[in-house]
Specification:
Structural class: alpha+beta
Bound molecules: ligand 0O2
Oligomer: single chain
Radius of gyration: 19 Å
Number of strands: 5
Number of helices: 7
Shape: globular
């Protein structure tokens, strides 16, 4: 028998699968043009039921209001090499007409107290079902590889300590966030050097493939 949660999550699963193909397709298009892709890689997930219930409790969201009030049941992440790529990706998302942007949250100029940096775009995405169209909220997080590294590590530690970090870990995470910020800054400064090297490398790989 199909359970209530399976039915509820089905459009979210469909949206994540469709958007993974669409957003990865953007990267492929840059590659085919032989130019730097502002998108390094894309991931997607549907929030596990236990996390939905946890968040609903923490944020006082009634279970019958999840669709309207929980924006990240379906989540996509777009990873970029450079901070400037994030702007390019956001611009590209704003130009699309297969969904509507309902909110943007800039945790890059306004980083979170934890040290978290990322750019969040919440979209309303139409899923085609056998009963017609259903629009659902999806959160797209756009961040650099360094921001992603920090967030992934912090997220696992958060899970381990249930958000109550010992002081030394908290301080180290703050320092790590600062280091990730500096890493992004340094990489931005030598961006053109890096891109030239990457372009030369792909030309060499292509030539090898043609041999
Ligand atoms: P998961 O496990 O990533 O799916 P809130 O949850 O109150 O902070 P809200 O309103 O849901 O915020 O919106 P926000 O902050 O734009 O998006 C929440 C998501 O952003 C989180 O999802 C994380 O993915 C990410 N995020 C926000 N702050 C932090 C942080 O300090 N550290 C890390 N590692 N990630 C963060 P969830 O719900 O935590 O779940």
């Amino acid at each position: 028998m199909v359970k209530h949660w399976d039915l509820f999550l089905a459009p979210y699963k469909q949206a994540v699968e469709e958007l993974k193909v669409k957003l990865k397709g953007m990267r492929t298009q840059f590659e085919m043009q032989g130019v730097h892709s502002p998108i390094e890689f894309v991931t997607g997930r549907v929030k596990p039921i236990a996390s939905i219930l946890d968040k609903a409790q923490k944020k006082n969201i009634p279970l019958d209001k999840l669709e309207e009030q929980m924006q990240d049941i379906a989540g996509l992440r777009m990873m970029c090499q450079f901070v400037d790529d994030i702007k390019t990706v956001v611009e590209l998302l704003r130009k699309r007409n297969d969904f509507e942007i309902v909110e943007e949250r800039d945790y890059i100029t306004q980083k979170k107290e934890s040290g978290y940096r990322s750019y969040h775009v919440v979209i309303r995405y139409p899923v085609q079902t056998i009963h017609g169209e259903k629009k659902i909220l999806v959160e797209i997080q756009i961040r650099t590889l360094a921001m992603n590294f920090w967030a992934t590590i912090e997220h696992s530690l958060n899970y381990k300590y249930s958000g109550r970090f010992p002081e030394d870990i908290k301080a180290r995470l703050q320092r790590a966030a600062e280091a990730a910020y500096l890493l992004d800054e340094e990489m931005s400064k030598i961006r053109f050097e890096i891109q030239e090297a990457q372009a030369a490398f792909s030309r060499k790989q292509e030539a090898k493939g043609e041999e």
